[in-house]
Amino acid sequence: MSWRSALLISSLLCALLSAALPEVLQAQPPRGDPQSQQREPLSRDRVLVEWAEPDSIMRELVARLGYRVVQYQGSTVRFDAGTRELVMRGKPSAVQRDGTMLVGDTIVYNDSTELVVARGDTVFLRDPSQADGDDFLALGEIRYDLRAQEGTTGAFATSVVSGDRLYVNAKSSTFFNDTTNVGGQRVFFHGADFTYCDLEDPHFHFTASDIKFVSNSVVVGRSALLYLGEVPVFWLPFFFQDGRSGRRSGLLTPRFGVAELFRNSANYQRTVQNVGWFFAISDFADAQASLDWRSGGAGGGGGFDAGWTRLNSDVRYKFLSRFIDGQANMSYTSRADGQKNTSVTWRHNQSFNKETRLSANVNFVTNTSVQRETSFNNQGAVGTIVSQLNYQMPIGPARISVGGTRKQYPGRDQVETNLPNLNLTMGTLAFGALEWTPSVRFNQNRTDKIDQGLQFGSVFTPGRNGGVDSTMVNASRSNTNFGFETPIKIFDFQIGNSISITERFDNYPEQRVVRDVNDTSIVSTRVFAQRFFTNIDWQTSFNLPRFFQGTWNLSPNVQLANSDPSAGLIVRSELSGGRYVSQGKRLVYGVSAAPTFNGIFPGVGPVEAFRHTINPAVSYTLSPSADVSDDFLQATGRTRQGYLGALPRNALALTFSTTLEAKLRPREPEERRGADAGLDSEAAGDSLASDSAAALRPGDEPGAAPIAAKAPEGTKIRLLALNFSSLSYDFIRADTAASGFVERDFRIQARTDLLPNLDFQLGYELFQGDPISDTAVFSPYRTELGVNFSLDGKSSIVGFVSRLLGLGGNIEAPSEADSATRASRSDFNQRGGGLSAAGSDARSDGMFLSTPGQGWRASVTYNSNRQRPLKPGGTQIAFNPADFCGQFPLGTPARVNCELEALSAPPAGFEPDGFTTPGGPQFVRPPSENLSGNLSFGLTQNWSTSLSAMYDVTRRDFGSLQIGLNRELHDWNAVFSFSRIPNGNFLFNFFISLKANSDIKFDYDRRSVR
Description:
By secondary structure, the chain is mostly beta strands. It is 10% helix and 49% strand. It has 14 helices and 54 strands. The chain is elongated. The model is unreliable at 1-35, 670-711, 815-833 and 911-915 (pLDDT under 50).
């Protein structure tokens, strides 16, 4: 590392600035101000001296091998044989040896003492070995001893390019050979002045009375001072910096604000972060250990803002030769109120070969309440803590994937584990005309420490002394799923076979209403200590070859289906006393058609044509009646009266999707439009016709036959795509019950290229009650509504409107890959698959700041979920966080934390997977309605702002709010930011940082914990 590069690193001497910085920066002229002229760098590309053209003898001497070429030039050259002194005078006088050039008014070289002296108003030194430095300019003289390899200079100036350009000036310097380091140097600077500002009158500069640079070692200095303009703002008695190249172990840069040094209130709690050490283990691994600290509250460290101490350790590794990369992080937090938390994050990716891979993303915390309450990160406050593990490998012709997931919820003890999750696929095995594609899946998931949605929190048992003992219920649930699919294809005939086994076990007491199978007036209420349901099913079907393939795509099929389609072939439950009972099978005959209808319509304006595509999928099924035993109905919690599951089936089903596309007119190149502007209409028409019909390739002879030229294609964009879920109508059920519709739910999805990442979904619950019973009432009720999209100045809809108005603008169809970025969960507090429990990502504030000049960007997400009102009767459990947390006053930190904990995970009755038999308690959950968005735009060329918010419409309160304002100065960046985290914490930050080195900054940081 050269001394010029070391000067760049030595700028770390001023890690803090004074409060006078904002006022001084306001007086700085903006970039491009004509009154602030930029200085010229001492570039090595410019010509310092015009060398005389050598004659033939000189060219022959220079070309001889084994000699070192030294080139001299001056107006007069005098050599004293007695003193062996060579003197060159003139403007300029120059000497060049091995690429090193010295230019001045007078150059004196003594062959006996090997001393070189260059004098003049300005003396230039160009050293090609300093790849990151420009020319060295000295005022007065440069004296250099070739034998001792040491010398001195007067006042000098130079510039260094290492990232940003650093301009250096000093009153004098001394340099000599370092005997302890082969090829190294020691350089002393006296009265040094350096800056990154490229103006003649720099906005800021650093000064130091003395600086010592040891080549490839260290940089030390004393009496360092930072000036803003001509105002001194900060002084350090000394500084020290490792000047070696590459990654080196050393101190981390602490993060704290001015308020931590000068507290402006007795109640202010100081926060200091990132105090620690960095370890450069090797070129492939590093580690760091750091400390975060927050002082206790005025009340002695109690309450929600008790203060804490956090120990952090981070290890990163990356071995490209072994295709391994990852990191491991751990944090230990100890609060002043005695609560502790350990957080662990481990991310690992490894490829053993082309088809064998291991990926792990492990996140684990011991105290989710401490994790949430001490976080100043939005996702860290409400995001689900998810761990994922997956291993893929081939076994012969098969491919196996095994893994699992684990979820923790902020502020909750509930833990969900899905382990193992096994999938085995064989691909297609061909034996002549026979093709077999088997696959196996198995997964088991558990939910432990369930603390919400329970009817009974305690179990009472008789005591030894005649009293009653109570024991807290340790509620848990487990689900086991096994599936084996073995489809076979012979020519165009397809035989489908599948076996599935599912079992659900609820290990907590629950009250149920049990009705007699044949007499619904006989009702009993029982409390089961445990609930379970086992479902064993076998499905088979036979599909005939398609007819009218490519048009109507008719496909007849025969299926051997269960008599009751809502349950498996063999079941057992607590209602059957643990006995396995079965139902029969019946033949189901069906035919399906999937045609495609297209319509082309003329365009308008920039649209050349419209295409409307309709893709209906219609199926008709017919099956005879069936018989279901009373034992089977008893096991599934159903009654004979009003039962519709065994009726004959005569149903028509429809699935519908439609797409409207537009093909835009191709835009002519600018040069083509300019060339055609000078032609008359007839000539222009002939020119366009000939160009579209044929063209000559470069290099073809004039008489060669032209080749057809492909006309430019217009952009195709999808204006609107609608997908409707399947809807079935059973004519026999319509005669028996009040309605012939079969499905319980109906959904509509929409997508367009005009709004990138658009995801619109509308969901309805069609029946009030169980649709398999004649007591169900057909009454569509909206249960969910979700919309999210992003928009910016380059979006298709903006370009489309601009072209309609004749304002120009390009339209680009977004790729299908952006669909992966759409939100898959309705509630924002349930998204957390990428959340880190420990490490720098978890400790960061997560503030999104826009960059000036990038234009505007906006994204909006709206989600509404509600439950159909339940009919009176039965056991109903109302789960409303407002009632659940009513013991705390509104607006208090205790109430906010309680409601966040209540909403962070679904209660026991809302498990989406598994089979729930009728007669159990009905859970009533309040509606949720959330609106979130991000907006960033540039106010001016140098000012930009950003806004990010999550608003709970139901509670009429912001769950999260972030506002940022960014000002780009000539040499500095100024940022104002305010954040309100969903856990109630507040964060206000204002800092100004140097562009060339962001660690040099003025920082005011205020954090409030609730």
